[in-house]
Write a structure and sequence with these properties.
Elements: H1 6-14, H2 21-55, H3 59-66, H4 71-76, H5 81-118, H6 133-155, H7 159-177, H8 183-196, H9 198-218, H10 224-227, H11 233-242, H12 246-258
Length: 259
């Protein structure tokens, strides 16, 4: 599959048509009925792979317990500065590792969603396709970039967080269908598409999140596991209708010629 370079991708985003909120939301609901199983699998895999990474943060606490520090002091946070410094030094690398895993799985999930959506049935896509050696460096760099942007947004009194949340959420979808782009180019394309469709995407994400949460809670809480992946689908559909897929465009051109 030929992938677009940054210039081609930017031109498609610039010339992207206006999209209707209701149509995208309706498509997301129909697509969810096809892909809810893959969504659950993606969330379960993310949880299973992330837990060992998060446990690394507890190393200072385990060390404190092993050294004989009273449990009451640990619970109160009255630890030696060295334990706190160790925790601080571990926090950002561990969060970058967690983000790398989640980003890779989400990008793979979008490739699976595309196969389901277009009825390709090739089975070539899988959740782990971006957690291979050739992509790990790019995934880690993208994770560092996104964490840095999010941290800067938090420092700037939180309001910018609402703005950067949309472009950062587009990083996995840009990576999924443009894997040959560099990390910097993927970030640029994410912000370009995010700026172009910010109002639409922000509204879709808020409504999707509220709907999935409400339905999940109505299903005794555990239902959130089944509904959470719905939030990812607006990103996919906005990309699909704004940028499209190279092979799909070629098929459409051939069919139009035959007609």
């Amino acid at each position: 599959m030929r992938t677009m370079n940054l210039t081609e991708l930017s031109n498609k985003i610039t010339n992207a048509p206006d999209l209707d909120f209701g149509n995208i939301f309706g498509e997301a609901f129909e697509l969810f009925k096809k892909t809810w199983g893959e969504g659950i699998l993606m969330l379960l895999l993310s949880t299973i792979l992330v837990i060992p990474a998060v446990l690394i943060l507890y190393i200072p606490i385990f060390a404190a317990a092993a050294s004989g520090i009273p449990e009451s002091s640990i619970e109160a946070g009255n630890l030696s500065p060295w334990y706190m410094i160790t925790f601080g030094l571990l926090f950002l690398p561990v969060m970058a590792l967690v983000q790398t895993i989640v980003l890779g799985l989400t990008a793979g999930y979008y490739r699976v969603v595309k196969e389901k959506d277009l009825g390709l049935g090739s089975g070539q896509a899988n959740m782990f396709m971006f957690l291979k050696k050739e992509y790990l460096g790019k995934l880690f760099l993208l994770s560092i970039m996104s964490l840095g942007i999010a941290l800067l947004a938090v420092i700037l009194c939180y309001l910018p967080v609402f703005y950067v949340a949309v472009p950062i959420g587009l990083i996995p979808i840009i990576l999924a269908f443009n894997p040959e782009l560099t990390a910097k180019e993927i970030l640029k394309a994410s912000f370009k598409l995010g700026n172009k469709k910010w109002v639409l995407l922000f509204g879709l994400i808020i409504v999707s999140y509220l709907l999935s949460s409400i339905v999940g809670m109505l299903l005794c809480g555990i239902g959130i596991l089944f509904t959470s992946s719905f939030v990812y689908l607006p990103y996919y559909l906005v990309y699909k209708h704004s940028v499209g897929f190279e092979e799909t465009d070629k098929i459409s051109q051939i069919e139009a010629t035959e007609i």
